[in-house]
Amino acid sequence: MNAKTRYAVFFLLVVALLVALALTIPSPLLYTLEEDSFPSPFHQNTDVLKHLATNSTDDIVPEIQEFVDFTGPLSLSIRVHDVEQARRDFERFQNSHGSLKNLIVKLDMNESEIQELERNTALQKEILDTLLNTTISLDELQVMEIQYHSENNQDMLTTIRLRGEELRKKVRGMGARYQNATERVAESGRKLGINMTKNQESQSTVNQIIERIEHPEAEALLRVDTSLVPGDDRISLFLRPDTGKYREVIEYMGISLSLQGNVTRREGGKQIILYMDDVPFSTVTTDSFGYYNTKIPLERVISGTHTVYSRSPTSRSVNRTLTVEQVPSATTLSVSHTNRSTIVNCSGAVMANFPVRSASVEIVWDETHVLVTKTDSRGWFMKEIELPPGRHTILARFNGAGYPIDPSASAPQVIEISLIPRTGDELELWDILLVICAIAILAGFVKITLYYIQRMTRKIEARAEKTGEVPAGTSGSLEDSDSDLPARPADTSELMDPDNETIIAYYSRLLEEKGLKAASWRVYQQLAARVARDQEIRRHRTLTAREISRSCKGKPYCRPFARFIAVYERIRYGGIVSVKDQTVFETALHTTDEQMEGGRH
Amino acid sequence: MNRWRVVAIRYASWIAGGVFIAALVLLFLHLSANDLEFSRYNTGWNGASAFFSDLPRDRTIEVFNPAILEKQPGNATLLVIAPYRMPTEQEIAGYKAFLAAGHTLFLADDFGAGNEILAGIGSRITINPVNISSLDRQYADPYMVIAYRTQNEGPFVMPPDLTLNGAALLEGGTPLVLTSVMSWADRNANNRLNTGEEMGTLPVMVQESVGPGRLVVLSDPSIFVNTMYVQPENGNNRALIHHIINADSTLLIDQMNSRTADAKGLSGILHVVRNTGIIEIFIFCLLILGAAWAWRKKAF
């Protein structure tokens, strides 16, 4: 490796060390924050936590979510007349409401927003409470009505009917109030990022309950009646096939007839309503021959057997049984980064025997946060979610509720969000700034180094010019430092003529002209150059006289040369020089020269 | 070109020397630190180096021998931070004698051997190894609980609140610091408030008189680690610690049974050297001999 390369490597080493020091001294960052966020059984790293959302609503959304979701199951339990379950739901709802009342903490939603949510859910609670009590009371009244009807107790029947009317009046207008409360809860939910689907779904259930309470006649019309309606009119119903799976098409067909005396007429243009489990699901019109036919795929129908019948305004078909079979499903999920480092794109699909369309899919991250999205007509879903920095596990799950499909969940996907959230633009700008800073620092360093070296060089030259000597520590001038030749003096009269002048003559001439000190130095340079050439000592002028003397080995002149060096140093650096020293020096010079000449050096 | 070389040669040895020394300093800093939990030699987030560097050297005694506790004069406070093993009989005797002399023992522990020490000295306080969670918290984690003082003046000047990092539940004693009503003991350790986990104020720092002495128990030693001590938002933690260590009394730090004394590698050797007088003298003598040899060589 040559000198240039060595100096370049050395320079780089110095720069690297300075950079390492600059990075290490202000803050001893031995590891990056990502690597330093190892789990500890004792405590957590606040530097990491600081990069997470601080006391955000996200932290308590699962708790609020649980509270808001309670209205759905409660209203459903009232609707299906499961009074015990409704009571249990109501109790849990009350407990959850109690915990929300205490939820006034330092969050990014203010106290008034929490109070607004609390007020509206309290109103929902009150309405559900009333509906629960009314439903129970009406059921009890119905039992009593049957009893008094069988006893033919008209007085009690009248009393019971009046009491029923009273109860019905009580729930009047509750639907609108519940709707207002639901809308306001939904608004709060949107603001706080809470999934309000269950709460909103409870609205339709509550409306149905209120409708049934307020208009019991309408309910009576829909009551299950498996026997044919007595009368002259007839309507038939056939299913093809009578067993199906999700999205398989079932054909519903039949004919509507009317009997007028002995004549049977086909009823064209009649409206036929198809019912499944007493709930209308389709309306068709008979053709001119009285036939009706429709094909409907099985969508949100739970698996099992279902009672299907059709009705015209005046007649009802026999009950048919439709069997819906359960099918397995598979949910896939892929997670990818977006342009913004904290937002990831979750996409996937829910597939059964067909793609599951318009189904709710829950995207769960870190087992605690749930976001809901819907599949499209091809069963695909996509949702962008914002995640705090750190490692996250995300999965998508389809719960299958309301579908003849088994629930399924995707494989968990792990994604890493950088602790330093930056958008693409910021990253670019930051990188440019970083490069500019690095170049500026490097340029500054080079400039300072150059300036310093130039200044030092000027100083050395100025000193050399002033004293007429080469700098201490080196044996020659600045030129030809790597040559084997002796240094070239500035004054040409100090030059030795090797062809016509022996070293002794050269010494004598210089002694006369320049004095002992200068003569001894020039003679030393001549001898040192010879020794270096003979001993193959590289860059001998970077060495001191004593070092050259020590390097001289295996030659007869080495010993006298060592003596010469010893006395030369005394003359050159010793101050006052005695005659004896001069004599010894000259003797050593002679001896060394002789030995060298003898050996033809 | 030659000028460059001459200058480079003249100063290269100085620069090389500087680089070598700087590299040695870096190497020493790297090797003398460790990553052990609570260790005083750990400069990372989970070490207690910042706390130990703030200790008043003039009146701080590091306790390596329980005998020191028995003959401690005047008014003194002993800090026992994160004890990790069953205390020995001598240590218990030392703590008892310390309290019997009317001093203050401050025990900071959550899941360590604090209960064994408390039982040994006859305290009625117990540390229940259950994490306290709270919605009233400093960072985005329910274990980063903010707790509030019950009184301005206790055994020390009390800051208005403390930020705790995974505090345990205390039972017994007179509460000095309580969590807010938004807190609960997270018995199933799922960070959530579940059925059976009731919200309420929970004690995290209590005191009790043991004979003439005073015992203070804090259920979270993590307030001494760097991440909870140096962060500006946890200034109240630092204030409490400063009030304890700068109180007008002698401060003793237990290094017999404390994770703060944990060391390994070079830091372990340094710990032994610093705390063993005879070795320290020996090393000092070696250094003098080395210097003398170097001087002799130079003179020659």
Can you walk me through this structure?
The complex is a heterodimer of chains A (601) and B (300). Chain A contains 17 helices and 18 strands. Chain A is an alpha+beta fold. In chain A, helix 7 runs antiparallel to helix 8 (154-171). The longest helix of chain A is centred in the C-terminal third of the chain and has 44 residues, at 424-467. The longest helix of chain B is centred in the first third of the chain and has 31 residues, at 2-32. The model of chain B has no long low-confidence stretch (mean pLDDT 84). Chain B has helices spanning 2-32, 49-53, 67-70, 89-100, 114-120, 226-229, 235-245, 265-275, 277-299, and strands at residues 60-63, 76-81, 104-108, 126-134, 146-149, 161-163, 168-171, 174-179, 183-185, 203-210, 213-218, 250-254. Chain B has a nine-stranded mixed β-sheet. Chain B has a three-stranded antiparallel β-sheet with strand order 7-4-9. At the A-B interface, helix 1, helix 3, helix 4 and helix 12 of A face helix 1 of B.
Most strands sheet of chain A: 5 strands, antiparallel
Low-confidence stretches of chain A: 26-30, 102-109, 218-232, 423-427, 469-483
Order of helices and strands of chain B: HHEHEHEHEEEEEEEEHHEHH
Give the helix level of chain A as a range of percent. 40-55%
The CATH class of chain B: Alpha Beta
Which chain pair has the greatest contact? A-B, 51 and 54 residues
Strand content of chain B: 15-25%
How many DSSP-defined strands of chain A? 18
Which shape of chain B, going by the Cα principal axes?
globular
